[in-house]
Amino acid sequence: MNQKLMLLGDEAIAQAAIDAGISGIYAYPGTPSTEITEYVIQSKEAKAGKIRAGWSTNEKTAMESALGMSYAGKRAIVCMKHVGLNVAADPFMNSAITGANGGLIIVSADDPSMHSSQNEQDSRVYGKFAMLPVLEPTNQQDAYDMVHYGFDMSEKLGVPVLMRITTRLAHSRAGVVCIPSRPQNEIRLPGDHRQFILLPANARRQYKTLLLKQDTFEKYALDSGFNVFTDGENKSLGIITTGIAYNYLLENYPDRHIPFPVLKIAQYPIPHSLVAKIYNSCEKLLILEEGYPIVEESIKGFLNTGKTIHGRLDGTVPRDGELNPNIVAVALGMNDSRGKDIPSVVVSRPPSLCKGCPHIYSYNALNEALEKWSKGRVFSDIGCYTLGALDPFDAINTCVDMGASITMAKGAADAGLLPAVAVIGDSTFTHSGITGLIDCVKDKSKITIMILDNETTAMTGGQDSAAFGRIEDICLGVGVKKDHIFVLDPSPKHHEENLAILRQELEYEGVSVIIPRRECIQTAIRHHKELKKAEAMKIEI
Amino acid sequence: MKRDIILAGVGGQGILSIAATIGTAALSAGLYIKQAEVHGMSQRGGDVSSNLRIADHEIASDLIPYGQADLIISVEPMESLRYLPLLSPNGWLITNTKPFINITNYPEMDKLMIEIEKIDNHIALDADEMAKKLGSGKSANMVILGAASPFLEIDYSELKEAIRNIFERKGVEIVKLNLDALQAGRDFAEAHMN
After folding, report:
1. Using the beta-carbon criterion (under 8 Å), do A339 and B27 form an inter-chain contact?
2. B39:A341 CB<8 A
3. Residue A342: HSE in the Cβ half-sphere, 13 Å Cα cutoff
4. What ipTM does this complex have?
5. Cβ–Cβ gap B115/A461 under 8 Å
């Protein structure tokens, strides 16, 4: 029997992947994509089916592992946030050339309005860049159904499929009807043993194959039923929506009757015939896209000599940020129903480091150790500790991308900014910090690196950290000198000795690594609770 | 029928347990639900909110349109005011009066109360104090939910059943604490509705 579950968009994707017979899920945590993999890790069905479920060191290793599973003929899904696809871009782009064997879906969760991100890049651009089919679900049910469809398409056409979601779908719950699960694939190697060898001669051939498939991709997008044209009596305007923008449009018509012709897009490449149909039958168009004005730009064309196209480019819709029902209402010329203003007495309440967080101590100690130098020499990274940028710490000066703390500090030190300090978390260090450290060792860079080791990936909810308990071994292994690696207890009772070490290493003209190590307060509380629960269970038995 | 509800609070205050209770009750009443949550960075002591939408017909948007929320349910007084642009002119504001102060420039309580009282339809109560009197400060969320219960258009019995289901595994005492908290909030609201 088909079962109806209340699921987050992320969870709908996860449940669908299990039901569609995946053999593995690979990911690095990143908001808003994390819950996909967490769901599979916790799923009893996944455990029973021996589905490989766990965290990879970064998105690139995740993508490559998934491609390897596809090579072996089994279905795999790989999940990341939008900026994670930058890290995985090399294998992602080349997977378009190798093609897939077992079904392969890449999920990239975009974060327009940057709720938890450093930019709002639109993963659909990557889909076009790689010339792969892209699925963009409009709701939780679509997300579920499209995973099944995506695996079928991936196996029939022999290509990876990109699924793009955005924050509001990822983190919103709704009822989802699930279908019975199907078995996993058996191991079956690619029929063409050269398919995955991208030597130039093979790659040229494979690339032509990909180019030849483009028409088929478009035909699939026409036939699948995910792209829907609905006619309307009022032809003064035609509306094209992509992804969840359709819901915001529909919300503005309580009787669910939209008087204008509407083209709802959820699968790419966009069928030309559908766009032609709405373009030719309407006086002008309004394009509603959650993300970059990609469809808008392509329909408008470089010279914009055709019909009037309204959207993000002409200011009808704001150029940046996520959409909502009111933005769409205003774009349609309806009244904005906005209520009372926020009273001026309300002040902002930015996120902050938790009470008892080890980073609080580390930043206070670092600030004190750096007192004798001018400000502006601390290069930081992506994680909870980025909150060190805010009051009362004001302790860091950069946060750019995963791992950039070490390499930017190196560049600044090379330029003569001494001392230069890098502050990076344990999980970010293994994600993308180690390679930078090797550069530093090779060049004998004059930098001090603090690896804030809270023994978890804290910001995304406490996932495993890849090098748990082995951070100093890694540093030693890549060539940092033993007498310049220090593990500290980041607590006030060790303040004097910690401060002395920090001051000494800031003066040292070479690579030094300082590792303040104490478990994240959130995971410590959770582990304490689990322990108490386990003990209580023992007593009951 | 539709109820669009903004749940408000500070990261870590547990507004999602209120959402889960209403959601469970609405599901067993056969209603459609959408509930958008906030995850990630803002959970670290920042302001958090959830959009909970319930209806007897399919729901389009995951986000509640501005000016159309029927209810703001807030476990913190300043946070209740942050979402006023979303509240419908006839909507109700249900808020805890116990401030959660984790910033240095938190406004004076009197000034917040003046703003809360400017809203025609409001219920303001010290849920923490009421919950403590009943035996556990932890059930303050359920006091707030109880105060919102007359406006939910969901049978009160369904809400009680949802609490029983959700807290069942924690034991009968916890279930009773939460049911008492729910009732106390409801009694307060019914006495202050007009």
Report:
1. no
2. no
3. 11
4. 0.94
5. no
Task: Report the pLDDT value the prediction gives residue B42, as an integer from 0 to 100.
Answer: 60
Fold (CATH) for B2-192: Pyruvate-ferredoxin Oxidoreductase; domain 3 (3.40.920)
Nearest to A127 by CA among A110, A111, A144, A102: A110
Which residue among A34, A337, A349 places its CB closest to the CB of B46?
Answer: A349
Residue A448, C-beta contacts closer than 8 angstroms, at least 6 positions apart: A419, A420, A421, A422, A502, A505, A506, A508, A512, A514
Chain A / chain B CB contacts < 8 angstroms: 153
Q: Where are the domains of chain B?
A: 2-192
- Cβ-Cβ contacts under 8 Å for A458 (sequence gap 6 or more): A383, A384, A425, A520, A522, A523
The Cα A442–Cα B62 span in angstroms is 52
Q: What is the DSSP string of B143-159?
A: HHHHHHGGGS-S-HHHH
Beta bridge partners of A288: A241
Q: Are strands A238-242 and A262-265 parallel, antiparallel or unpaired?
A: parallel
The model carries a pTM of 0.95
Domains in chain A, CATH or no CATH each: 3-223 (3.40.50.970), 228-331 (3.40.50.920), 358-524 (3.40.50.970)
DSSP secondary structure letters along A321-353? S---HHHHHHHTTPPP---SPPPTT-------P
* Bond before A160 cis per omega within 30 degrees: no
Radius of gyration of chain A (CA): 26
Q: What is the mean pLDDT of residues A141-145?
A: 98
- Determine the length of chain B: 194
CA distance B95 to chain A (A): 15
CB atoms within 10 A of CB A411: 17
Separation between Cα atoms, residue A381 and residue A384, nearest integer Å? 9
pLDDT tier, A351 (very low <50, low <70, confident <90, very high otherwise): confident
B49 contacts in chain A (CB < 8 Å): none
Pairing of strands A22-27, A3-8: unpaired
- The secondary element (H helix, E strand) that includes residue A60 is helix A59-71
